[in-house]
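Retry 2 of 3 after timeout on previous attempt. Resubmitting structure tokens to design endpoint.
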């Protein structure tokens, strides 16, 4: 028997697809029903203004919190040269998944209780995006088997390098809008992202 939340999510997704309207990217239950195999990343070509506002508020609060911690980092975890457009189209979702997983891990582990309520909506949205991205990558047949490109391998390896907690928090925060408005949009556009 499916949970009621799963049915509601499926109905909301179906209604959005049939009416051609965008569903808000963060419904209450972010778990997908086991039979949800369709890929609908196109809705993430742009996020609704209220979602972006929630992310702005969270970013500003985190930056203020980090200033109080006096975090100094020598390197950037996400260099500006790391643009998903530089990867092969089929590799972009994997790179986005890795960045999204790291972002979620860092934001979920922020210890300041004052950030909890501010991060609630952005975390919920990011978890929903992650679930949709996973559904898309699982539903797509794998292309020719092989190893990832050298560039993707380097990027994924960089995510495994050890950073101080403060530097991870600073990197994730400064990269938040690039993740949402650059990387996510690029993956949602597929071949049209050039």
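Retry 2 succeeded. Sequence:
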């Amino acid at each position: 028997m499916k949970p009621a939340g799963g049915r509601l999510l499926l109905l909301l997704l179906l209604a959005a697809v049939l009416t051609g309207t965008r569903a808000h990217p963060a419904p209450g239950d972010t778990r997908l029903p086991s039979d949800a195999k369709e890929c609908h990343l196109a809705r993430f070509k742009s996020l609704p203004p209220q979602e972006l506002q929630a992310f702005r508020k969270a970013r500003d609060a985190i930056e203020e919190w980090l200033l109080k911690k006096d975090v100094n980092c020598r390197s950037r975890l996400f260099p500006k040269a790391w643009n998903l457009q530089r990867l092969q189209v089929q590799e972009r979702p994997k790179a986005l998944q890795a960045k999204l997983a790291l972002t979620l891990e860092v934001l979920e582990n922020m210890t300041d209780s004052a950030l909890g309520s501010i991060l609630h909506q952005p975390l919920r949205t990011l978890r929903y995006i992650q679930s949709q991205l996973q559904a898309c990558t699982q539903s797509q047949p794998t292309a020719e088997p092989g190893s990832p490109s050298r560039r993707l391998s380097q990027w994924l390896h960089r995510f495994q390098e050890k950073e101080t907690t403060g530097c991870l928090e600073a990197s994730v925060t400064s990269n938040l809008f690039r993740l949402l408005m650059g990387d996510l949009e690029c993956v949602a556009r597929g071949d049209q992202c050039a």
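Attempt log closed. The CA atoms of residues 27 and 164 lie 33 Å apart.
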